[in-house]
Design a protein that fits this description.
Layout: E1 5-6, E2 14-22, E3 28-35, E4 45-48, E5 57-59, E6 62-69, E7 75-80, E8 95-97, E9 104-105, E10 107-112, E11 127-128, H1 147-152, E12 157-160, E13 182-189, E14 198-199, E15 201-208, E16 214-216, E17 222-223, E18 230-237, E19 241-248, E20 251-256, E21 258-259, E22 265-270, E23 279-289, E24 292-296, E25 303-307, E26 310-315, E27 320-324, E28 334-338, E29 347-354, E30 373-378, E31 383-393, E32 418-423, E33 428-432, E34 434-436, E35 441-448, E36 451-456, H2 462-465, E37 471-472, E38 484-485, E39 496-499, E40 505-509, E41 515-516, E42 529-539, E43 542-552
Parallel strand pairs: 2-15, 17-25, 37-43
Antiparallel strand pairs: 1-2, 2-4, 3-6, 5-13, 6-13, 7-12, 7-15, 8-9, 8-14, 10-11, 10-13, 16-18, 18-22, 19-20, 19-23, 21-22, 23-24, 23-25, 26-29, 27-28, 28-31, 29-30, 30-36, 31-35, 32-33, 32-36, 34-35, 38-41, 39-40, 39-42, 42-43
């Protein structure tokens, strides 16, 4: 250990003693006092006598030049006092009276990379000298002013030897390399100083640092749904603890990072009650390793999430997926997968989560038949040349098998009873669909866009399978009464046969979509008249024949 003590006799002066207290192996640390007036070596660090008319702050007549070297890039120099006999309350850092243990004068310091001459102290930009016995004042909740927190946060750190972190007063967004030598200037806070003699020993420790954490995180930039939890994942190396901080509509909070099995992987979760409406969410991740901090996206920087309850994407003839992001990778997502040539031109596709039933014209359903989730797929009424696959998300955040609506209200039925319905402008018509309980989605294939929702499946009798369209007018192709929809057959395997009034088979429909557009097997629109349909469907667990008539008008 390279140790050098600069001793000073204190008689009616505010002076200090400097101590190279601790060094790591293979390092050197030399401390010299020099006069501010001529930059010559000095034997004392002095402030002079306490004037009758106290100034706010008195600058020292000397500064400290520190020269150092080390055999590793990961090191730091801390400054502190260790007034073990002080009885000055929660704070002990600074000059201590030589005649009593209850009086002290706080000291401040600031570090520079070159000689400053006479300096002007500011308690806003300078650092208070901390003592190893400093405790947090429980009567103030502004910040933790204990020694433990000061050291953990780097407040007592004069200079770093890694990552350009130095505590040198630079432009806030820049960093200055910590090159030897550095120059530490001091000031005394005389605002409450009593007359007398004061002395102090100031120590500098040069020690190895733990490597700072390295945080890798893919930012969440947009969320198009409420009612789900938001899960943040990050890969962090060199970490002992981590935390995510967030700000939502003016309120702030934090979530402790939880390791999730894979080395270096941490997760942070915001519960569904944190984000309840459209707006902005801000977050950042902080990680520490033995007191060494790191931040993502950066210290005092925040990542913004736009919560808007909708998403829009242009899809062309080559097809594509449109996804409503929900911020939760642990379940599925609201999505439509449009295959190639389902569209003949570029089309803007929008998906919206509906939380206000008043937005659905004519909706009058009530009682215990309430939706678990409703989504608006537009352009409304848009028909595709090929079937598109649609995923509808439902929530089951407690994983008990009972779905919840977007407000968190749990339904009194099992998720296996869910089914997809679509809004025809007057009522909800069943589609069916396949429930994926692992991903909390219902998968359906559809041929057109409108409102789609998830309800508890109603019992399907023979009449419920029959199309509501009694007359179709396909020749006009105006999106009104062009197609007859056979409800509730998605997920079932059946064959629909269409006959003319003489019994001649006109069309066979072997799979989804279970609908008839008024064409024969060759794709030609049939003549005006009445046509008969027949198919088998599940009715109370048994296959039953369903039949009826549809009129085609030209």
């Amino acid at each position: 250990m390279n140790k050098r003590i600069l001793s000073i006799i204190i008689l009616g002066f505010l002076v200090g003693e400097i101590n190279n207290a601790q060094l790591v192996a293979g390092a050197t640390l030399d401390v010299h006092a020099k006069n501010v007036i001529d930059n010559q070596y000095a034997d004392e660090l002095t402030f002079g006598t306490i004037p009758a008319e106290h100034e706010d702050f008195a600058s020292a007549n000397q500064y400290i030049e520190i020269e150092y070297s080390g055999d590793t890039g990961l090191w730091a120099i801390d400054i502190y006092t260790n007034n073990e006999d002080a009885e000055t309350g929660y704070q002990r850092g600074g000059l201590l009276s030589t005649s009593t243990t209850t009086a002290r004068i706080p000291l401040l310091w600031s570090v520079y990379d070159d000689i400053q001459g006479k300096v002007q102290c500011s308690s806003i930009t300078w650092h208070w000298i901390k003592d190893k016995g400093d405790l947090d004042d429980p009567t103030t909740d502004e910040y933790d002013d204990s020694w433990d927190n000061a050291q953990a946060e780097g407040y007592a750190r004069v200079v770093y030897g890694q990552d350009n972190r130095s505590n040198l007063p630079a432009v806030p967004t820049e960093a200055i390399d910590a090159q030897s030598p550095i120059f530490v200037y001091f000031a005394a806070d005389l605002r409450t100083a009593a007359a007398g003699d004061y002395s102090i020993t100031i120590s500098f420790d040069l020690y190895h640092l733990a490597p700072p954490p390295v945080i890798s995180h893919t930012p969440i930039k947009k969320i198009g749904i409420i009612g789900n939890k938001i899960v943040f994942n990050a890969t962090i190396t060199n970490v002992t603890s981590s935390r995510l901080y967030y700000s939502i509509e003016g309120s702030t909070g934090s979530v402790k990072g939880v390791p999730v099995g894979m080395t270096g992987t941490y997760t942070y979760t915001l519960s569904r009650d944190k984000v309840t409406k459209p707006g902005k969410v801000y977050y950042r991740i902080e990680a520490t390793n033995a007191g060494e901090p790191a931040w993502w996206p950066g210290k005092s920087q925040w990542q913004e999430i736009d919560v808007s309850l909708s998403t829009t994407l242009t899809v062309g003839p080559k097809g594509g997926k449109v996804i409503l992001p929900d911020g939760n990778p642990d379940d599925g997502e609201v999505m439509v997968d449009i295959p190639e040539w389902a569209l003949n031109k570029d089309t803007k596709i929008t998906i919206k989560q509906i939380t206000d039933l008043n937005r659905i014209p004519g909706y009058r359903e009530a009682g215990d038949w309430k939706p678990v989730g409703i989504y608006d797929f537009t352009q409304e009424g848009k028909r595709f040349k090929k079937l598109v696959t649609m995923n509808l998300l439902y929530f089951d955040l407690d994983n008990n098998g009972n779905p919840e609506d977007w407000k968190g209200k749990e339904m009194e039925f099992n998720e296996s009873q869910l089914a997809c319905y679509w809004w025809d402008g007057f009522t909800w018509r069943p589609v069916g669909g396949k429930v994926d309980r692992d991903r909390n989605i219902v998968i359906v294939k559809v041929s057109h866009f409108t409102y789609y929702a998830l309800f508890k499946a109603r019992l399907m009798g023979i009449s419920e399978y029959r199309p509501k369209e009694r007359i179709i007018t396909p020749v006009y192709a105006d999106g009104k009464n062009d197609v007859a929809y056979f409800s509730g057959l998605s997920g079932q395997t059946t064959t629909i046969r269409i006959y003319d009034i003489t019994g001649k088979k006109i069309r066979t429909i072997n799979g989804e979509p279970y609908e008839w557009d008024g064409t024969d097997e060759d794709g030609n629109i049939v003549e005006s008249g009445v046509y008969i349909y027949q198919f088998k469907a599940d009715v109370n667990g048994k296959k039953r024949l369903v039949s009826g008539t549809i009129a085609v008008a030209k």
